[in-house]
Amino acid sequence: MSKAATKKQHWRSKVQDSFVPLLGPSGELGIAVGGGADYGEFPFVTSAPGGGLTVGDIILEIGGTPVLGMTLGDVRGVLSSCPHPVRIKTAPQGMEAFPY
Fold first, then answer.
1. Whether residue 5 has pLDDT greater than 70
2. In terms of DSSP bridges, do strands 65-66 and 58-62 run parallel, antiparallel, or are they unpaired?
3. Alpha-carbon Rg of the chain, whole angstroms?
4. What are the counts of helices (DSSP H) followed by strands (DSSP E) for the chain?
5. Are 18 and 88 contacting, i.e. CB atoms less than 8 angstroms apart?
6. What value does the mean pLDDT take over residues 47-62?
7. Higher confidence at residue 63 or residue 7?
8. Which of 15, 40, 58, 83 registers the highest number of CB atoms within 10 A of its CB?
């Protein structure tokens, strides 16, 4: 008899597409990022207001710009230069293979 094959979902099925609005009258963007190539890490969310983003999520794109491999300063630059609300694609940490 053969064992029943268990099919794993591809990591792309876990990618989330979120929009981050400006918060309050000050116009602050309610997200903070960490990591980056200068730290040998993927960029990730360190603070989020909710609504789709989770602390620890790996940031794949900001406003359509791929950010994997960028330094933290470059990621913050892309984040601040995007029109609002900012569109961010993320994936949860711990996914097995990122081909980017």
1. no
2. antiparallel
3. 16
4. 1, 8
5. yes
6. 85
7. 63
8. 58
Place of tokens 């994936």: 91
For 6, half-sphere exposure in the C-beta direction (CA atoms, 13 angstrom radius) is 1
How is residue 23 written in tokens?
């918060």
3-state secondary structure of 45: strand
DSSP 20: E
Supply the pTM of this predicted model.
0.78
Q: Are 75 and 59 in contact (CB under 8 A)?
A: yes
Could you give the CA distance from residue 24 to residue 27 in angstroms, rounded to a whole number?
Answer: 6
Q: Which domain holds residue 70?
A: 14-91
Residue 26's contacts (CB-CB under 8 Å, 6 or more residues apart) are none
